[in-house]
Amino acid sequence: MAIDRILIVNSGSSSLKFTLYSMATETMLAKGLVERIGTPSANLAYQRVGDVKTETPVEAETHAEALKLATGYLADPHRGVVKSLDEVEAIGHRVVHGGEKFHAPTLINDTVKHMILECAPLAPLHNPANLGGILACEQVFPGVPNVAVFDTAFHQTMEPHAYLYAIPLHYYKTYGIRKYGFHGTSHNFIMHATAAYLGKKVETLKIITCHLGNGSSVAAIDRGKVVDTSMGMTPLAGVIMGTRSGDIDPAVVLFLVRQGMTPDQIDAMLNKKSGLLGVGDIDSGDMRDIVDNTAAGNEHAARALNMWVHRLVYTIGGYNALLGGADAIVLAGGIGENSIPARAKLVKALSSLGCILDEERNKKRGPVAVTTDDSRVPVLVIPTDEELMIARETFAIASEKA
């Protein structure tokens, strides 16, 4: 009997996001979020597909309590989508960091849980929280298979010359300092969706995928394998993001330490106060605000937008060279899918690669080619769906076990 109902869980330090899918049609049935777990202001948002979202204050001291409350809605006689939670046949978990230990989605057992914790030094804010969600599911859904889908796994096809940093190898061998890359689930989904849109097989395509949101990354994918990606050992590296700096001279950190800043202060500045927020000077790192203020004549916002485009063109151009010429450049994520002005500015800046903007096509959300038919390299807008990708990966693993 084929597996159908799959629950997707994304657990943070004080939050738990959940989505239920029917894999027979790859349809989302319901979704929700429990926030501020462990505080008096805990809140549960729930929405059955087609209905209005509801929000309710809840008492949830632990992730297990939050999960019980959240999944209770799924089987609610009036707002639920299943008759019983016994219908949940597998659970997929987003896990941020798999280090070099995980190259693919993995069925979770005690060894895997231990290995996820061993990777925690590489993602101290995320992996322990992700593991907390796994433990909660094991408590609430005893006997149901759990599958870990890692943000880093998709990028593990990079060769050493791409992922190593030019520092003494001792630091790689001892501490695992190297490029890992992130947003792998999104890049994987975009790759397959692009192949479907073009009517070609993944194994025949060279594409540059751009996950552009508040967090952004770019990947060069050669026939299904990542050649390089912009994020590094952490998600701070690469292109300019909403509040993250992206690549900077590492000596800047040393300089700031010598000026008296602590590592925690520098970490907060680079991750939460930089990027578009830091240079836009409008108290916002949201691209919508950057675009609006640019249109209104704000020179700082305009410069922030130019910096964003400049770094992306620099990265995309380099990846195009690494691939020996891309078959397509693909834009996804909140900015890539929705910001018509930002997309237009980026595509125009890619004209040297043979990308010619089609203004009318660019008004659409996607999936759509926003370049003219005679463009040497098409630029596509392909909406991403990380939860669905996790559901697909979970379905594949759980079906093998069933």
The CATH class designation of the largest domain is Alpha Beta
Mean pLDDT: 96
| Beta-strand proportion | 15-25%
Enumerate the strands of the largest sheet in spatial order, edge to edge or round the barrel: 5-4-3-2-1-6-8-7
Low-confidence stretches: none
Q: In one word, what is the shape?
A: globular
**Total number of distinct structural domains:** 2
Distance between the termini: 8 Å
Helix/strand/pairing category: alpha/beta
CATH architecture of the largest domain: 2-Layer Sandwich
Number of strands: 14
The quaternary state of the protein chains shown equals single chain
Radius of gyration: 22 Å
Main β-sheet description: 8 strands, mixed
Give a written overview of the molecule.
This protein has 402 residues and is of the alpha/beta class. The chain folds into 2 domains: 5-153, ATPase, nucleotide binding domain (Nucleotidyltransferase, domain 5), CATH 3.30.420.40; 200-386, ATPase, nucleotide binding domain (Nucleotidyltransferase, domain 5, 2-Layer Sandwich), CATH 3.30.420. Helices cover 38% and strands 19% of the residues. It is built from 14 helices and 14 strands. It has helices at residues 63-74, 110-118, 127-140, 160-163, 169-175, 184-198, 251-258, 263-272, 275-280, 287-295, 299-323, 333-338, 340-349, 386-401; strands spanning 5-11, 16-22, 27-35, 43-48, 54-57, 90-95, 106-107, 146-150, 206-212, 216-222, 225-229, 328-332, 368-369, 379-381. The protein has an 8-stranded mixed beta sheet with strand order 5-4-3-2-1-6-8-7, with helices on both faces. Strands 11-10-9-12-14-13 form a 6-stranded mixed beta sheet, sandwiched between helices. A hairpin with a 2-residue loop joins β10 (216-222) and β11 (225-229). α1 crosses α3. The chain is globular and about 55 Å long.
